[in-house]
Amino acid sequence: MAKTNSGRFFEDYTVGETLHHAVPRTVKMGERALYHMLYPARHALYSSDQFAQSSGLPFSPLDDLIAFHIVFGKTVPDVSLNAVANLGYAQGRWLAPVWPGDTLRSQSEVIGLKQNSNGKTGVVYVRTTGLNQHDEPVLEYVRWVMVRKRDVDAPAPETVVPDLPKALSADQLVIPKGLDFTNYDFTLAGEAHRLSDYEIGEQIDHVDGVTVEEAEHMMATRLWQNTAKVHFDTAARPDGTRLIYGGHVISMARALSFNGLANAQMIVGLNGGAHANPCLAGDTIRAWSEVIDKAETDAPGVGAIRLRLVATKGGDPFALRGEDGKYLPDVLLDLDYWALMPL
Amino acid sequence: MAKTNSGRFFEDYTVGETLHHAVPRTVKMGERALYHMLYPARHALYSSDQFAQSSGLPFSPLDDLIAFHIVFGKTVPDVSLNAVANLGYAQGRWLAPVWPGDTLRSQSEVIGLKQNSNGKTGVVYVRTTGLNQHDEPVLEYVRWVMVRKRDVDAPAPETVVPDLPKALSADQLVIPKGLDFTNYDFTLAGEAHRLSDYEIGEQIDHVDGVTVEEAEHMMATRLWQNTAKVHFDTAARPDGTRLIYGGHVISMARALSFNGLANAQMIVGLNGGAHANPCLAGDTIRAWSEVIDKAETDAPGVGAIRLRLVATKGGDPFALRGEDGKYLPDVLLDLDYWALMPL
Amino acid sequence: MAKTNSGRFFEDYTVGETLHHAVPRTVKMGERALYHMLYPARHALYSSDQFAQSSGLPFSPLDDLIAFHIVFGKTVPDVSLNAVANLGYAQGRWLAPVWPGDTLRSQSEVIGLKQNSNGKTGVVYVRTTGLNQHDEPVLEYVRWVMVRKRDVDAPAPETVVPDLPKALSADQLVIPKGLDFTNYDFTLAGEAHRLSDYEIGEQIDHVDGVTVEEAEHMMATRLWQNTAKVHFDTAARPDGTRLIYGGHVISMARALSFNGLANAQMIVGLNGGAHANPCLAGDTIRAWSEVIDKAETDAPGVGAIRLRLVATKGGDPFALRGEDGKYLPDVLLDLDYWALMPL
């Protein structure tokens, strides 16, 4: 009896089945400290208990992207071990803060399947939910990946492609219970700009860059118990390079965006995202943002800002696609998210 | 008066003396988080408080190898600063879990001495015990190292070689108080295989590999307050390479063995081990295991599995020694241990 | 409206103004664990709750240099983003221990300004104070930096140069409340030498060296939320190297000084310091110390030792300056501090 997990292939998925991902994880302040070591993260709500308390929370929760990475990492052995490409995200919502001491686990429902015309691969759509120790959902998102078939002669499943709206509307966002920005201290937070200071269409160059190292991205990826071979093993790819986990680029870009978006405190919605080009050690990650939308919320003093966050490894800020409509070769990430910001 | 520690030489040891190693260390969840960042560790009992509670423990203890590395690290300034080689381990037993908040210290009794025929070095045998803040032993093991003489003309001590059985018998293993695997959740743990699914003699290729970096092994080794120069200082070895701490290879291989041995939850016995060849940054560590023995225990649902764990930097899985009986050059580690697994 | 922070230039400072630095930070044991991973830190009071308790403290505080780095890091966006050079430190005092769970913030008073004769730069003197969540000061120090002018034609401010004594006297040092070394355990601490064993003028070569890596210094610097571009971005300096944060060298040298100064437990005063030459990845940091002064304190069994700590990347130990009076090219750091040691 084979003991090791060789991962699922395209024909192993059935629409409607639920995958219960392994290895729950208790997270505490150690993970927070590591996040601050791995990324230049400075958003005040995730840095200071007192700042969180003055914003109506009992204390500072763990960063929204820590929750994302842990929930995501657990899905890798069941969803993306034989993936050719991570194609997209949609309908991501943070549903409750993750507190130090919480234990997270993940499960995914298969919501779509579409074999590719070459007959060798197919697209698998899953809706992944992260749950805490009270079985309360803390995060959900849809992801679709291209997965190899084990047997090219296996019959194609019925095609089911879920209807995925391009973005969440602001009223779909879940605001953490008690959040209140009416006493917001802009000096402690680091910048004076409130939601009304941002214009739809405004673009912000976040200026700073970080040159990334092999040791850093491997440690970050391991921290989320993400086991995909291409991140760790120089024998896994033909050219001997280790591909940097796309989530490492997301966290780096989000942290760099503090410079200009210090008050976009909490990510609460993930509308979509593309890992446009591979990132490798030695690349210098830079970031720019564009304001896509703004909205009020029911929470006192709390607004929502919809942002495009683009990570690059060079090139002109604000350049995104070439004349052919394809991402420029220096673009690493094109992310569309909602964050909460004082009105 | 010289203020710095130049380490002990062979003639500085006396059979029967006890070395009280310096610098006690309080460990908490931060060390756990770091362990998860440094190694692809996923065993559920050390990852989730809830999983540990469903196994009869009050919450999740710190990984068995964290305890080993911390206890070991403290012995370096007194035992292996002038060591030529770390020759072996025997009779290692984990005696009590290490809980977040515990403070660990180490002491070693010199149990054997044997001068080598060249008159320049000798073998020192110590039994090291790790103790917590209640002076309860949490770990004990025998280690023997080859140590330089300060003065080659110093007289040879009487030869004392301790009688070290090749392995612990299963009834010598100490099971953590309360441990109960009768409600074990194999889905959350990550694999379906219980003790009865493993055959004595069965070999498992753990498939995955991790290419290691200088920054990682130095951070890991420092974390255990291990101060041996060869790990940190490019001037310490003639070829300018930094030798990777053997314990780093142990932890990496053990973590990789999750893939195929996810239910070998807790290491409770160390029968023996050899660091077969040096490991250097840039090497890709892989691992395979062989089932040596199986046993029941007195704890409900809890069995014990004796495993050979071999780490390599390449070569064929399951290859160990050449025709000359020596370890093959790609073999890094040959470890013999007992772990607890659901029956 | 520009959203990003381009930093302050020389003409933006006014003597007497107070800068309230952004992003308070709650620190816990995770930061301690990271400090032990990044540096070979072994001082017992900062390693063991029990050792701290036997020294009269409720438990082990966070390392003195963790407090320094966090307080310092917060000042970078307001003080040194456009700095040409960090010129010196003076009058640094640790005023209260930092406990796990404390939240730190920083503020700086501008206490001096002096435009340079070239008209392009000027020297800014600030007194920085770190405060905890009770608004109690935990640390204060004076730092002066050379800052670029935005507009070379901006008028020079009135020259104000603060009077900065070359060193704190022993009676200016603040001893943590309750500290008592009368039951000090020299074996657990790692060395037998008490204050009376050290002679003024005595020099100690700390023997060990650590070759530093890019990943390590970037992680350390990020951990303190220090955002200076030169540490992270290979495009920030003409030669493509990343300059290692001077504080990384301070912590590395201080940790190496354990070997010979294991009982210099707590830093309580910073008399002065110079970052003599840049440190780059690949350098091997070594350290030596010289005893400058000794004093008694009011606390039972507690003495104070004033030390010069020199970090080098090679060269002869105890060599500091050339015949021209300038620091030798291998000298990285020349630090003058007070530490507490058992009498």
From TrEMBL, chains A, B, C:
GO molecular function (one): lyase activity
Designated name of the protein: MaoC family dehydratase
Pfam family, one: MC_hydratase
Phylogenetic classification of the source organism: Bacteria, Pseudomonadati, Pseudomonadota, Alphaproteobacteria, Rhodobacterales
Stored CDD domains: FkbR2
SUPFAM superfamilies registered for this protein in UniProt: Thioesterase/thiol ester dehydrase-isomerase
Organism encoding this protein: Sulfitobacter geojensis
Source superkingdom: Bacteria
